Records
---
Amino acid sequence: MRRTTLTAGLALAAAVALTASTATLPAAAAVPAPAVPAPAAAALAAPDVSVAAVQAHLTQFQSIASSNGGHRRAGSAGYRASVSYVKSKLQAAGYTVTEQTCTSCTYPGSNVIAEWPGGPSNQVVMFGAHLDGVSAGPGINDNASGSSVLLENALVLARQKPTMTKRVRFAWWNGEEQGLQGSKFYVNSLSSTQKGYIKGYYNFDMVSSTNGGYFINRLTSTTSAPLKAYWDSLGLSPEENVEGQGRSDDYSFQQAGIPTSGYAMGASARKTSAQAAKWGGTAGASYDPCYHRSCDTTSNVNATGLNRSADGIAYAIWNVAVGTAVAPVGGVAAMADEPALATSPIYAIVNRGTSLAVQVWPQYWPAGQTIALSASAAPSGVSVSFSPSSVTSGGSSTMTITASPTAERVGGYPITITGTSSTTTATTKFWLYTS
Ligand code: DTR
Ligand code: ZN
Ligand code: ZN
């Protein structure tokens, strides 16, 4: 759930909506191939990550602890079940998941690594959270919270498949509670060339403290800028994560000279009265009253904070690693002088609860052929239909996109349109935004 839209995001929405409003076009044969629009600030169209989906992951971690002796400590059955949970969700979303066994850890076990295979492999941005807990309790704020906001962001990225300018790598660490062991092992396993590829590491540890604050590691660094910009846009005035300095996995990367940042809401340290005045909550009480205790359960969750971290991560991914989502497709394909499909516009924002018409026409097909049109799966709550459903060379079809009031919110979601005749198949991509 995201309540605030950034100004820049609104500017993008307005620009795209403008294009979309010219969508109802006349006779197709006369329509020239549409110009590729000026690259919009698509990076700002970060998706709204569902806090309900994040909470569903927390519930799963809670039940994993409950059925495995009440905790998820490294080396335990609860930890291994946590690894399996994260791994299976990632694999179902299409990731290739690597388990790296931390052999030097007090409790040897897996770090889970998943990389989204877009963007240059020598420019990597990492997002990580420790997956282990302490043996005192289920470890829901510490650190199913960080693990879950990360997992949901990885799943959203895989669903949206935006154009990438950087490689995004997610990691869930073993053995943080014994001294950042899993992340240290990982960093030590990299060659200096591989370390050099990592342009930044973002850490998420305790992001739903019930009496928490809004803390950012290395608040004034360039690396922290997107995390800070998002929380600033919510009016949160984040502060430096003083309490957490050197105490979580970002430190392993910092020691290797890799720029770091991250979100945290605080552990056992106490909220000041100035912080209570600014953020609400109880002055003089710990940010997390259940820190490393048996009461760190799904009742120990600040859903508002959880949501703000989940959305801030998406904002950071989209700003740091996602390019302008509009690719030069559609009319451009016709330059190859072979059968192609063109659309006008080539991308659009569809407001939920409305429909929008897009013209689709074949170019450079053999004369007299009948070309059947179809579209790949749309986001949930969005339907796509063609009228007519097939066209002859020189004709055109209207593709109607209808978004229900509860349709999924997407930015730069590719819909592949396929044209098939008796001799030829061609495809083009249409980029869908919903708002
Ligand atoms: N790494 C945390 C320890 C920790 C202590 N204070 C903070 C503040 C913010 C984030 C983390 C921490 C743990 O896992 O226990
Ligand atoms: Zn801890
Ligand atoms: Zn922690």
---
Amino acid sequence: MRAVDIIMNKRAGKELSREEIAFLINGYVAGEIPDYQVSAWAMAVFFQGMTAKETACLTDVMLKSGECIDLSGISGPFVDKHSTGGVGDKTSLILAPIAAALGLKDPMMSGRALGHTGGTLDKLEAIPGYRTNLSVDEFRTILIKDGFAMTGQTKEIVPADRLLYALRDVSGTVESIPLITASILSKKAAEGADALVLDVKFGSGAFMKDPSDGEKLARSLVDTGEAMGKKITALLTDMNEPLGNTMGNFLEVEECFDSLEGKGPADLMEVTLELAARMAVLGGKAKNAKEGRSLCEEILASGKPRQLFLDNINSQSGNAEQFLKLRGTFRSEYAADIKAAKTGYISGIDAWTIGHAGVTLGVGRNRKEDPVSPTAGIVFHKKGGDAVKTGDKIMTVWAKDEASLNAALPRIESAVGYSDNAPPPRTLILKEIVSK
Ligand code: URA
């Protein structure tokens, strides 16, 4: 077999066999097939798509490219959540300790910033010392102790996703339903979760721009996941505006901690609690989402998730005391404010523009080897629906250096829309997609 023939078959819209998919993916992981051929193949998949059979094969081949985490001997239920990616999308860091406090186990394998969207691993690593490259033994130990553990794809666990994810990030091949499905479900199968709640985003800041494409992605994820034996449900949620009041690695960790102290912004808490409620249902702690939500609200008010979050920082080689001291101060020195250009209302802050500006600020990457900045990002003092007067502070922006700040500012200003009248409220959660 030759990689070039597989690329050309996909380019011609043919269905690839399991052998062809395995040849390409395993060859890539073994270092025998170069980045440029796999990028070309990913681009062919982007344009031609994959059948459900090919998507299932790709997921399975990626899963089998490494070890699975052995959760035997640990009592479950193992329930996790994954998002298809957004801007300011930080719900994992709030709901994992909530789920753990409810008595669920959340074995969370996450990703890095992808395209214009943020990554849970990059956010967590903004906490000085925090490690996301856990060995399987460390992952197990922390899961038992804290009820949740957060790790990334490694050379041992789903190495195919580790490589492909980084390649797609910089080759314009992220927004593909089969590639997203295989990437998410290979990680989720390897981590050992029995049940999965998916946050499938649509809107300008999501990979799927319109709700109908979001729903197709949700259906692909739910059907493929179900065929793999997972209990699975998906919420289709709005990502036209950044979620919460921050975008940036350390800033978002801080906002999650504020949320665990009961000070989370309304939009962030709405999406987080609705996702957590479904985790409670799939984990057998609640009969329905309404009951699950009440349980999550009660446990949040108890302060237990807040303590588990701090415990987990220590467990993963960070320092909770130092984290608390850095809170509110760990910022880049290169900063500027964005002021309202008009009097009226903010009609919206465009998530896509903010996500791309975030890459320039240093929150995400342009090349796969680029480091990200822990202290770059944006605080939104105003969001869509807020009344403003000319000159009011709308955002504070921090960048990794001065040139990046100057390059990003005009773009950030252009993300703000104005209207004379209050815009209609957004519906954050459009629908739930369940297994058939
Ligand atoms: N999240 C993932 O893990 N993979 C994708 O491809 C997109 C979002």
